[in-house]
Amino acid sequence: MVVAQGVPDVSVDDAPALISTTDAWKDLAAHKEEIDKTHLRDLIEDQKRCEALTVEYNGVYCDYARQRVTEETMTKLYELADEANLKGKINAMFSGEHINSTEDRAVLHVATRAPRNKVINVDGKNVVPDVWDVLDKIKDFTEKVRNGEWLGHTGKPLTSVVAIGIGGSFLGPLFVHTALRTCGEAAEGARGRQLRFLANVDPVDVARSLNGLDPETTLVVVVSKTFTTAETMLNARTVRQWIIASLGQEAVKKHMVAVSTNLKLVGEFGIDPDNAFAFWDWVGGRYSVCSAVGMLPLSLQYGFETMEKFLEGAWNIDEHFATAPFEENVPVTLGLLSVWNVSFLDCPARAILPYTQALAKLAPHIQQVAMESNGKGVSIDGQPLPYDTGEIDFGEPGTNGQHSFYQLIHQGRTIPCDFIGIIKSQQSVYLKGEIVSNHDELMCNFFAQADALAVGKTAVQLRSENCPDSLIPHKTFTGNRPSLSIMLPALNAYTTGQILAIYEHRVATQGFIWGLNSFDQWGVELGKVLASKVRATMNEKRTKGEKMSDKDGFNPSTTAMLNRYLEGKAQ
Ligand code: F6P
Predict the structure, then answer these.
(1) In terms of pTM, does the model score above 0.90?
(2) ipTM of this complex prediction, to 2 decimal places
């Protein structure tokens, strides 16, 4: 085990003991020595173990026989979950307790997909009716835009949508849009429409997202929980200017709508509050795709009914997470395996490898969900954590990734992989005369990669294949590299909701076990504060036509770079 780097040296009186001090944790640490004596090459041949190490729920099949665990390890991990009071923490989340204690907020993204008849209280008030008021408003508005009842300023239908937002106000909706674009019934609902995203404040992103669009037929959705995020607000002003320049000030009310928790600032920006879609402080940005953040732009594109199925899929997993015994609980089991890999096997990263192009934006979304949630150095009580938490998430669809970074995963660093396969593809391509379809070919790789990582290839095997001695070290695969395989029957709105919720709750499980707060994100603040200091100074220097000096409060390195930038701009 490695001690987390750079954690503050603070003492917290009366804080509960860290999970690493418990017998369950110590037992796992000792058990790791046993696991180190095993190899996946042998473990994977054990029929009984293979049968035991699967978990399945409502079409989601998860095989974790290629994790470096035995049934005994799993028993110990479930004991760790009990020790960490995982059940109590899940219950506290679903019952609206302020478990995000550093921001004094409930954590109830699950309420954004709860059926109408559910009761979920926050501070004594059932919030489900509020959720459905907004969903009904989204349904009404998006149907009007889609059927041409709501027209642009010059009377034309609004067939293009640009959603402006960043981080959690962008990555989730982009992930879902990418998942549904080629999905039969969803794509049918999107016929004749386009949805684009503008996230980066980079003028290149502005140009690309507006390229070829006609303001007369474009609806802009400004998405920001706070409505203060510098990049989003600058992009919103830029695009508002783009509309006004072409159609006049009056056009804004027909062409710009907003999603935010801060309806006051929406009004001050000049967007009619009637055209604002609310959400609430108990929905974290990175957990907000099922709120109006995702539901508004995605319903504009695909229709509300399709997006309702997405909510149903997510809620299906929510209920499973809240009620299923841990041994049968998909997100809990996956979360415990990640804790095992990070904190006991010292694996610093996790690769998310969907074998479908439609999940190309899953890894970028989960990168924020997981890394912003569990990238913490202190416990929820502020105690420095003596064990590693969080992991570096990255990934690309297979087989593209195989031709890129898999080399390192096979013969370099040990990186647990999530392989995600779809049984029935969104598209079917059969070349005449070929028996194996494109999708079969893709899935052959899905099955093969997991075994290649687990089993590897020995020098003995290579010799038997007459491999020259000089190449044997290079062609040997150590194997024993963990992965898990998730299979879904198909990828549609419903299963996209399921996969989203599985990852969200897996991340929560990890955070609950590690005893940290997965729902704040103080670590992103410092950079924002420093950027505003740079912005203020840049403004002043530009206005006065001056150079930066050592009196401006920046270090010599930053001063030199800023001067270089300012001079470059002036030339
Ligand atoms: O900088 C990180 C962050 O605060 C995320 O947590 C959030 O999703 C993103 O910025 C965007 O924030 P907002 O929706 O308030 O514009």
Answers:
(1) yes
(2) 0.98
